[in-house]
Amino acid sequence: MTLLEVLEAHFREADEAQKKEKDWHREYGAKLRAQRIEAGLGLRELARLIHFTPSFISDLENGNRPWNLAVARLYLHALSVHRVDVTPV
Asked: Is the pLDDT assigned to residue 87 strictly greater than 80?
């Protein structure tokens, strides 16, 4: 294998890994968007609760921005708090 072939193989593998990573973020965002909608929580309301802009949240949910653990925790916490029934007994 020539050095050029090695380099081409490396970049091909890197491109494939990047595509898989983007697909994962898109799928994760779609799952969380479905949970948000199921919880009856609007995009703007969620953004306000976790102190991000609606466009930032939209980018996450659509896979246009990568998720990180801190943001995922905030997002999931807001969903769990929103689902708590606070109706007096």
From this structure: no
